[in-house]
Amino acid sequence: MANTRVSGVKALGVVRLIFGLLGLAFLLLALGFYLSSTTFSSFTGRTQGTITDLVANNNGRGGLAPVVGYTVAGQAYTYRSDVNSSLSLFKVGDQVIILYQPNNPQNAEIEGYSVGLLLALIFGIIGLVFIVVSLVISVVRFILRRQRR
What we know:
With 149 residues, the chain is of the alpha+beta class. Helices cover 50% and strands 28% of the residues.
């Protein structure tokens, strides 16, 4: 019976390692998405835009994406968000801040409404869950080892 317990403790160690590494990988992905989103936001121009439309996405899953009209240096531009949502945060006529690249104003996004931030949040939560599970397994493993002595 003692061999079964030792094998179980060793198996917990392997499971703990797997969960810990997966958690770390998800947290690193979250950090990457967050940094790419904030880098875009911090090196861009800003202007006021107006939601001109809410359009259905092309993949047939439902959801609406905001379309924004904005002006940079007297030139009018239109931006369609890559983020589709069935819970629309916007209404036609809403004013939003548009972040854009000064050398290419067509490359834009709505401030605080990017895919990168959403992915950072999702991967961060998943990573934290894996890390917590790894820590719980570590505590259980520690308790089982102490009982064995």
